[in-house]
TrEMBL record:
Designated name of the protein: FAD-dependent oxidoreductase
Region of interest: Disordered: 85-109
GO cellular component: cytosol
InterPro entries from the UniProt entry: Amino_oxidase, FAD/NAD-bd_sf
Species this protein is from: Bifidobacterium platyrrhinorum
UniProt xrefs under Gene3D superfamilies: FAD/NAD(P)-binding domain
Length: 528
């Protein structure tokens, strides 16, 4: 006989693996029998690193920064901060604080780099600082007339407030109608496939609440002051320093998965959860299916789920049926899917006009991301992997490895393109944007498709509270992570939901309010 509690964790992404480690660390194997079920054969979910011909892609770009000190410490314990200069630090003579006794990235792989964040907006063939800043470049790119129109439009929005019953009004109240139409309207529709007037203001409350014109002005003036501010004092999207694993975010999650297995966690890959079984108002077991269609039942005392809520409810419905209205809400929850096209190119047409030194011959632009706010292009964002970590690129001095991010619906015409068609489309857009000269510049490519990358805030989302109440009714089921909660969580938020859930299991706390309230408190917000 054993007094161990058995815990099944659905999903090997940030939330699932965080939960597994929180249960098993510090001798937890004596108290908990932990099993992780992962549908794929990779770890990290959308925070994984994709490897292709010696180059590595970060799906969506993951800055390792959090206002939650628990998370920062967690990351640093998994991959210690660099104690010596990285390849690009050395080559560019770049200096920043090193961690005393930390590993040397040139000699060791398990290391977290310290990075400087640069992002800009591409609009009307001009580059603007991201977020928009008070600079000569901004005023020059907009021109005097447009600057005046935007300024008066903003002043009007300060006096005449619109009811914040949709995302469009939310943006106009903070930036004015002119800046909204330039930088938010088209990009938001590109990202979500819906006009902002059709999207709940909840999304804005979660993602952009702390940022406004006044926020940008305050930050611009504060940067001129001699006193250096801590990251805790700066809105998250204005953070200019962050951490980054040497080989991308997937390296961290592969390390966590390895640590979990070493400590006694059972990890099963290729295990898709197809049925959730219930008994006496509690979850009793899950049924998984492998690639050959073989089914396995896994019983447990506690269940932590990071699988999409829609799939979770339908899996309950596959056994003893979930109530019809809950199935209706779950099936109406919308998602936005994601395609990224990686292109290895000889060089970029873009010149580095900043004062930030960069690698490459000629030197490349210093951006981590370039936001394509221009509605004339389908691509939403460009990533330049060379600037995230030089170790993501096989030949970092002589090639540029970039990722073009596209938002779409699973099964639509863009999603269904062949690799060749998607690559040709991406090359044509980059050429038209004058980022590259043409197809002859491209040396290699890779297309990656990601389902349910972005939980969306429309359709039946307004009834999400009903679904939360139903799922919380199973006392031994905890929903965590971005898709597990149908909330546009960042990686640190997803991890925090898992930490809260494990805390409840350990303490016997029955209310799950703390698990669902992560990323609703102002201090958690990602400000855009």
């Amino acid at each position: 006989m054993t007094d161990k509690q058995s815990v099944v964790i659905i999903g090997g992404g940030p939330a699932g693996l965080t939960a597994a480690w929180e249960l098993i660390k510090d001798g937890g194997a004596e108290k908990y029998d932990v099993t992780v079920l992962e549908e794929t054969h990779e770890f990290g979910g959308i925070s994984r690193t994709v490897k292709h011909n010696g180059n590595r892609m970060d799906i969506g770009g993951h800055r390792f920064f959090s206002k939650d000190d628990r998370i920062m410490d967690w990351w640093k314990e998994t991959l210690p901060l660099q104690g010596a200069p990285s390849y690009d630090d050395k080559k560019l003579g770049r200096e920043h604080d090193m961690e005393p006794g930390g590993p040397d990235p040139e000699k060791e792989d398990k290391v977290m780099l310290k990075r400087h964040r640069v992002s800009r907006i591409y609009w009307n063939r001009h580059f603007f600082d991201y977020p928009i800043s008070l600079s000569a470049n901004t005023l020059k790119a907009m021109g005097f007339k447009l600057t005046m129109v935007a300024g008066f439009s903003y002043l009007k929005s300060m006096i005449h407030k619109l009811p914040e019953d949709n995302l469009e009004n939310f943006y106009i109240n903070r930036f004015g109608r002119k800046l909204y139409s330039m930088f938010f309207e088209g990009y938001t529709e590109k990202l979500w496939g819906r006009h902002p007037s059709q999207i709940s203001a909840d999304w804005g409350s979660q993602r952009v609440k702390g940022l406004s014109i006044m926020g940008v002005l305050k930050n611009a003036f504060a940067k001129l002051m001699p006193k250096k501010r801590s990251n805790a004092e700066v809105e998250t999207s204005l953070i200019e320093e962050f951490w980054y694993p040497k080989y991308g975010p997937g390296q961290l999650w592969e390390t966590v998965e390895h640590n979990c297995e070493q400590a006694g966690v059972k990890v099963v890959t290729g295990a898709k959860v197809v049925e959730i079984r219930q008994e006496s108002g509690r979850i009793s077991a899950v049924v998984t299916e492998d690639a050959e269609g073989n089914r396995t039942e896994v019983a447990a005392d506690q269940f932590i789920s990071s699988m999409p809520v829609k799939d979770l409810v339908n899996a309950i419905d596959a056994g003893e049926k979930a109530p019809g209205d809950m199935v209706e809400v779950a099936n109406g929850l919308p998602y936005r899917d994601f395609v990224t096209v990686g292109l290895l190119v000889k060089h970029l047409r873009l010149k580095n006009t900043t004062d930030i030194p960069t690698l490459g011959n000629p030197p490349i632009v210093p951006d981590c991301w370039i936001y394509v706010q221009d509605p004339g292009y389908k691509v939403g964002r460009l990533q330049i992997f060379n600037n995230w970590s030089p170790y993501l690129v096989k030949d970092v001095d002589d090639t540029v490895w970039i990722g073009l991010e596209y938002f779409c619906e699973e099964g639509d015409s863009f999603w269904n393109m062949t690799d060749e068609e998607a690559t040709k489309f991406a090359i044509a857009e980059l050429t038209r944007m004058r980022v590259i000269n043409g197809p002859a510049d491209v040396l290699d490519s890779h297309r990656e498709r990601v389902k349910k990358a972005y939980p969306a805030y429309f359709d039946t989302y307004s009834r999400m509270d009903e679904l939360v109440e139903y799922l919380d009714g199973f006392g031994n089921l905890y929903c965590v992570g971005r898709n597990g909660q149908h909330r546009y969580n960042n990686m640190d938020h997803s991890m925090a939901t898992a930490i809260e859930a494990v805390g409840n299991i350990k303490s016997g706390k029955t209310s799950k309010k703390n698990v669902w309230s992560v990323n609703t408190d102002k201090s958690y917000h990602e400000q855009k």
